[in-house]
Amino acid sequence: MTDKPLHIVIADERDRRGWSQKRAADEAGMSLRAYTNFEKGKTKPQAKNLRGILRAFELDGSASIEPTVSPGDWPADVRAFQNMIGAFLMTMSEAEREAWIFAETRRIFASRS
């Protein structure tokens, strides 16, 4: 795995394939604006768009996104919370999980600004 950020890896792969940003956005099933902002490193894509990008470029999401800090480095209380939330999320369908994660992420970031 490269140490390059995902948006750089994707931009390089798009260039290698000879695709325009418009084609890459279409292949990923997202707007051109959202795609170009991602590729420039201005924004992180929403989960649906990230899945589309990974699918379009035939990348495995688990292999292409590496955390900068591994969970083993997290404090014990954070790991315990992660395990609790993980167990809670496993009680939901995939669609429910995606909606809940999206809503909670927006709420958390809104509360921090």
Structural write-up:
The protein has 113 residues and is an all-alpha fold. It folds into 2 domains: 59 residues, 434 Repressor (Amino-terminal Domain), CATH 1.10.260; 42 residues, no CATH class. 66% of the residues lie in helices and 0% in strands. The protein contains 7 helices and no strands. Helix 2 packs across helix 3 and helix 2 packs across helix 4. It is elongated.
Entry keywords:
2 domains, elongated, mainly alpha, 113 residues, 434 Repressor (Amino-terminal Domain)
Q: Short summary of the structure?
A:
The chain is mostly helical and 113 residues long.
Spell the H/E element sequence: HHHHHHH
User: Would you tell me the structural class of the helices and strands?
Assistant: mainly alpha
| Beginning-to-end CA distance, first to last residue | 34 Å
What's the main sheet like?
none
Uncertain spans: 62-68
Portion in helices: 55-70%
Please give the CATH class of the largest domain. Mainly Alpha
CATH architectural group of the largest domain: Orthogonal Bundle
Shape: elongated
CA radius of gyration is 16 Å
Number of helices: 7
Number of strands: 0
Percent of residues in β-strands: under 5%
Stated plainly, the CATH topology of the largest domain is called 434 Repressor (Amino-terminal Domain)
Write the layout of secondary structure elements.
Elements: H1 6-17, H2 21-28, H3 32-39, H4 47-56, H5 61-64, H6 76-89, H7 94-112
Helix pairs in contact: 2-3, 2-4
